[in-house]
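Narrative of activities, Objective 1.

The group set out to show that a structural description can be obtained from nothing but a protein's sequence at a throughput compatible with the screening campaign. Below is one input-output pair from the validation batch, recorded exactly as produced.
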Amino acid sequence: MDYDKIIIGIDPGTNVMGYGILGIKGKTPALIAMGVLKLDKMDDHYMRLHRIYERVLSLVTQYLPDEMAIEAPFYGKNVQSMLKLGRAQGVAMAAALARQVPIHEYEPRKIKMAITGNGGSSKQQVAAMLQRILNIAPSEMPEFLDATDALAAALCHHYESGKPAFARGATSWKAFIAQHPARVVDSERHKKS
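Output recorded for this entry:
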């Protein structure tokens, strides 16, 4: 099928990295592929990062996504885990940037809210909702929920990019003008022309 837009979603991790490829035709999203990269058998942390970079680069080369949606690391109590997760996210982003793919980050709660309507949903609830929204056969559902988390990031981005700019973060017209100064018409200059 020929899609208007392709979005790659990434759920970064140094043990398991999830990915999901979403095709958009008109306003309708469809599953193209999803899966995981298992890294837990590799002892060297830096080799895991290298493998993440290689796999994301190969996915970008294979599917030619227009955009990447990546789950932002959440703040936890374990600083070392946060650091490792941030590195995994960074190398995945570097792979996308190597092919000039624009990147959009979403917090886990925002992704869950976009898919289920509840920012506190479980991974299983997100997977079940994706299965319904994208008509995924039970036999196609992955064993690891990191894949559905990545697909959820891609679908969240599809929903967010369909919103008017005002709804994507500006909390008032003043905030919108501050965020988008080039889109505001200079009324004095407009009167003279």
